[in-house]
Each structure stands twice: as structure tokens, then as C-alpha cells.
Amino acid sequence: MPRSEIRQWRQLTRQRTKLTDHRTSVINRIHSVLEQGNIKLSSVATDIMGVSGRAMIRALSQGESDPVRLAALARGRLKTKYEQLVESLDGQLSANQRWMLKQLLEQLEELENKDAIYSERIRGQMLAYERQLELLDTISGIGRRSAENLLAEIGPEMDPFPTDNDLVSWGGLCPGKNESAGKKRSSKTPDGNKWLKRVLVEAAWAGTNEKNSYLAALYRRLASRRGKNRAIVAVARTILQAAWHILKEDVNYKELGGDYFERLNEEKSTKYLVKRLEKFGYEVVLKPKKAKKAALELKPKKTKKAKVELKPKKASEATA
User: Fold this and answer.
1) How far apart are CA 101 and CA 56, in angstroms?
2) What's the whole-model pTM score?
3) Domain boundaries in the chain?
4) Contact 19, 118 (CB under 8 A)
5) Half-sphere exposure of 75 (CA within 13 A, CB side)
6) Among 284, 229, 4, which Cα is nearest to 125's?
7) Per-residue b/e over 125-140, b at no fewer than 16 CB within 10 Å?
8) Which residues, other chains included, contact 201 with Cβ-Cβ below 8 Å and sequence gap of 6+?
9) What are the Cα distances from residue 311, in Å, to 46, 205, 278, 289, 299?
10) Domain 4-125, CATH 1.10.3470 — does that match?
11) Per-residue pLDDT, 273
12) Can you give the pLDDT at residue 320?
């Protein structure tokens, strides 16, 4: 049983998460109302609830129907899509649909105000653990809100979890083990803490979108063999393990880089790349380097194949 302080954090962060879900539901409803009136704003604007999108939707709810005047409300980079905006806003909303848009916008603003109130309350109650939040924020895919949700679920002290694997097991992010009489059954992850799983999976997806990151490399490595769902759970597990070490040892997250697995086994990577080149019709000759760099030459052969050679450079230039 966590102490009272952590239980209070969980009440606040979980309710804030529910507000986020409610907000998403309202936005989806706005999308639906616009589609019913043949307004295709979402096909041009990435986020219809941005500054430009809100201005257009508010104008629609107030009776504006001219697509030219609506498109003129665009701001920033969306202004460069003026012609597409005019075309996407050329629809017709009924009086009832305009009224619904107005109500939905008011509901959305109310939810966002409530969210801000909860966030301020959470920030105040976690003020003494700002250091831990800043450290968690260094993990790829983790932002301030995710760090707060994560800290509320696992707590700031790792004493209840002797190892990172104990924390992973408690969180339900380890492979299940169901074996009887030598027969293996389902190995899906156990139920665990659904709130913790949610924040970690969301962070995992965000982390896989970061360029040249270890988490993105891990996901690609596993997704091709194990599937996307298992790969994302593995990334979430890695984030949780990193959080354990960060909180336990009071250290920053260490980014291993997108080429970590290639550097980990250079010989295996080299053989793989050579095999790939040979598959594309090349004969590969590898020669040791005398300097730190080498030149790559592609020389056509008399046949349809070409020869690839790695030769030491005479200067700091590479020939191709």
C-alpha cells in the first residue's frame, strides 16, 4: 500500500487523464459535425483545434459560410495552404449543426480549463520532487505530464523494488508464463497497473518517433520479427527500467543512439551489409583500413555485376 501522499497524486493524475479522454471525445464529435456538413478541414489542417482551426470553427458556429473569408482566418504555416483551405471549407452546415459546434467548443474550453486547474494542483503537490521529475523528463518520449503520471504510479523511492525487473513485473510489462506438463500456453503480459501501462505505452510511441534514438532502433529491431504490439511493449518496458535506474541512482537518462545495435556487434552488422550488397548483384571485397577513413569504389565488371572495394584514402577525400 503506497503512502497517503502518493495515493493523492494518483487521484489527481488519473482524473486528469479522464479529462483528457473526455476532451478527445469532444474533439472527435466536432470532427463528426464538420464532416456531416461536408467541411473537410481535417484534410488540410493537421490539428483542427489549433489557433487557425478554432478560429474557423468558431466562425462557422456563428453563421459564417463563405469559404474565402473562413480561409482568411488561417495563421502561420497554414496560410500557405490557402487554396486547399477554401476548397475544404466549401460545405453547408445546418442551423442545428452550427448550434452544436458552439456547444462543443464551449465544452472543450471548459475541459481545458479544468485540465489546467488539475495540472497546477499536481505541480504544487509534487514540488518537493522537482528533481525526480526533471530526471524522468530526460527519457526519450517522456514529457512533463508523462513524468508526473509516471512518478504518481511508481513513487519517487525505489526501495519497494529491489531490482528494475521487480518494478517491471509489478507493472505487468513482463512476458507471462503459463506452462503445464511441458506445454506452453499464452505468454501475454499480465494485467498489472493499467494506468502505468498507459503512460508507458504512450511514451513508447513518442520515443519511437524521435530520430537517431535508441528506443526507435529497438522498436524497428523487434517489430520486424515480433510484430508492432510486442515491440512497443518491449520499448515501454525499457522506459520503465530506465526510470528505475534514474530514480534509484539519481542520474540522467543516457541516450545510446540509433546506431547502438550496429556498434554492439560490428562484425555481425558487417556480414549482414555485405550479404545485402551481394543480393543486389555486387561482389564485395573488404580490405583493412590504414587510416580512420576509407574510400568506396564501384567498378563495373564485364558482366552485369559490379565490384565494391574499400581502399585506404591518400587524402581526406573519398572516391565514388
Assistant:
1) 11
2) 0.77
3) 4-125, 128-249, 267-312
4) yes
5) 10
6) 4
7) ebeebeebbebbbebb
8) 232, 233, 236
9) 48, 41, 18, 7, 13
10) no
11) 82
12) 39
Distance CA 196, CA 176 (A): 17
Q: Of 16 and 275, which is predicted with more confidence? A: 16
The answer to whether the CB of 207 falls within 8 A of the CB of 186 is no
Distance between terminal CA atoms of the chain? 65
Give pLDDT, residue 2.
79
Q: How many helices (H) and strands (E) does the chain have?
A: 13, 5
Task: Return the SS3 of 180.
Answer: strand
CB 213 within 8 A of CB 235: no
Q: What is the pLDDT of residues 284-302, one digit of tens each?
A: 888 877 655 545 555 554 5
Predicted confidence (pLDDT) per residue in 113-169, tens digit: 999 999 999 999 999 999 999 999 999 999 999 999 999 999 999 999 999 999 998
Residues 182, 185, 187, 190, CA torsion sign: negative
- Contact call for residues 312 and 289 (beta carbons, < 8 A): yes
CA nearest neighbour of 45 among 36, 37, 56 = 56
* Residue 118: how many other CB atoms lie within 10 Å: 18
Inform me whether the pLDDT recorded for 14 exceeds 70.
Answer: yes
* Neighbouring C-beta atoms of residue 288, cutoff 10 Å: 7
Chain-centroid distance of CA 275 in Å reads: 33
Q: What is the DSSP string of 242-287?
A: HHHHHHHHT-------TTHHHHHTHHHHHHHHHHHHHHTTEEEE--
Grid cell listed for 157: 523511492
- How many whole angstroms from its chain centre is CA 108? 24
